[in-house]
Specification:
Elements: H1 3-13, H2 16-27, H3 33-45, H4 51-84, H5 92-112, H6 119-130, H7 134-159, H8 168-189
């Protein structure tokens, strides 16, 4: 998918396409959310998009995705674990302990997981399945959606004057490589 194609889609469908991409990314459909937000910020810096509307769209899409995943976890999660948990040695007792731990201190993962691909997609499902109360989930999801969106969209905005849009795929690849190397280093040190 080329940068011209993405830019054209945003121009055709407006800010709705941003919301849809973020919803899909949060519920688990593979989408390069961070790279996309940096790209949006860069487009805003170059005057192609409004920064405030882009950030609002990012926050809205991420929040809606979190809510959808939470309610899916709330409705289907327990039966899914009962049916398929045995295949990964997740017994009822282990799940109850994990869910209790999540309800106690894991709720902050809802906020921090935004910054960790994979965990971002799992946290709302776990929160819903574990029975985390709706109000704390809403507050942490809204705050996390905004903070995560602001960091990456603003980062793109500040890069916008210094990095041509055609370099964005390379910048995304370098960021992914850096994340993998840091993760490996931390894993080996533990």
């Amino acid at each position: 998918m080329s940068l011209d194609f993405v830019t054209q889609q945003i121009q055709v469908f407006g800010y709705w396409i941003i919301i849809i991409v973020l919803i899909c990314g949060i519920i688990g459909v593979p989408a390069p959310e961070e790279t996309f937000m940096v790209f949006l910020g860069m487009l805003a810096a170059k005057g192609h998009l409004n920064f405030g509307l882009s950030l609002l769209s990012v926050t809205t899409g991420a929040f809606i995705g979190m809510m959808l995943a939470y309610f899916i976890g709330r409705k289907a999660g327990k039966s899914f674990i009962e049916r398929y948990g045995k295949y990964v040695k997740l017994t009822e007792q282990r799940w109850e302990k994990a869910a209790g731990d999540f309800r106690e201190s894991g709720k902050w993962l809802v906020f921090t997981a935004f910054f960790f691909p994979g965990f971002r997609q799992l946290s709302p499902y776990i929160a819903g399945t574990s029975g985390l109360s709706l109000l704390p989930f809403i507050v942490l999801s809204a705050a996390g959606s905004f903070t995560w969106g602001l960091v990456f969209t603003a980062g793109g905005y500040f890069l916008g004057d210094h990095l041509p849009l055609s370099y964005l795929p390379w910048a995304g690849g370098l960021a992914l490589l850096a994340f993998i190397l840091i993760s490996i280093k931390k894993y080996k040190s533990n």
